[in-house]
Amino acid sequence: MENNNFVNSKESIETKKKPLIVLKDVLKEYDIGDWIIRAVDHVNLSIFETEFVAIVGPSGAGKTSLLNLIAGLDSVNEGEIYNSGIRITDMSEESLATFRIFNIGFVFQNYNLISTLTAEENVIFPMMLAGMTLDERRDRGLRLLGEMGLEERREHLPFQLSAGEQQRVAIARALGNDPPIIIADEPTANLDMETAEFIAKLFKKLKENKKTLIIATHDKVLIKQADRIITYKDSQIIKQDIIHDILQ
Ligand SMILES: Nc1ncnc2c1ncn2[C@@H]1O[C@H](COP(=O)(O)OP(=O)(O)O)[C@@H](O)[C@H]1O
Ligand SMILES: [Mg+2]
Q1: Could you identify the atom of ligand 1 that is nearest to the CA of residue 216?
Q2: CB atoms < 10 A from the CB of 209, how many?
């Protein structure tokens, strides 16, 4: 299989640079009663520090399932996942939650803002979990909302915000604890062109700031910025295109 060849060739140079995230033979199935849906079919994948990986592929391929596993938001049926040298596969819910707070900013496709909290409260909530003081949280929250052009929306509840605004709040929240890894699930889908461009520029800046980016997307502008494009279909990696070899 193509993906195995790729992994082998990558692994031969892994002695030079160690991958940040490693998936080993990962299987994810959903038991929906009458049958079982296989969303991630024995996938092997290594992602390197500061790499921008775009995951493309048709709806239903299993992209969201794969991102959720990488982020530790869901558990594998088989296989192993390592992040920063730590095997996250069998971590307790509590340890995983703590690991995520400091290491991973996740941008959900449907934003997943807490409906009863204002934009500002949504952004600073993970900072509280990370132990920042109230002053630090307010300062940082306001700065991030400002960077997203949302300072004047800080008191708004999610339902009072447009889709583009909600997505920018969700991105600000993901950046709250300055995590080294940002995972985003179709972050520009269903948004107007202006907001989509704004978000693409933002990810470009995050890349320049040495973040590791893993983004499922159909957005040509975003895909163009990636170091590697992974084509995911029928629960497997069927193709990988290296645009910029960050191991060089
Ligand atoms: N929690 C779940 N329970 C049952 N089936 C699911 C669940 N999440 C995803 N699936 C199924 O797994 C397959 C892959 O879904 P998903 O990972 O959302 O793909 P994509 O993000 O590429 O559209 C689909 O057939 C979907 O219906
Ligand atoms: Mg999806």
Answers
A1: 21
A2: 9
Angle value at C-alpha 203, between 130 and 125, nearest 5 degrees: 25
Pocket around ligand 1 at a 6 A CB cut-off: 30, 32, 37, 39, 57, 59-65
- Domain boundaries, given as residue ranges, for the chain: 49-75+92-242
Give me ligand 1 centre to Cα 58, in Å: 12
Nearest protein Cα to ligand 1, atom 7: 30
CA distance 153 to 146: 10
Partners of 94 in beta bridges: none
Q: What confidence tens digit (pLDDT) does each residue in 15-31 have?
A: 467 899 999 999 999 99
The CATH number of 49-75+92-242, from 3.40.50.300, 2.40.30.10, 3.30.565.10, 3.90.79.10, is: 3.40.50.300
Residue type (1 letter), 189: A
Radius of gyration of the chain (CA): 18
pLDDT of 51 above 50: yes
Please check the confidence at residue 247 and state whether its pLDDT lies above 50. yes
**Do 168 and 149 meet the contact criterion of CB atoms below 8 Å apart?**
yes
Structure tokens at 236: 């497997």
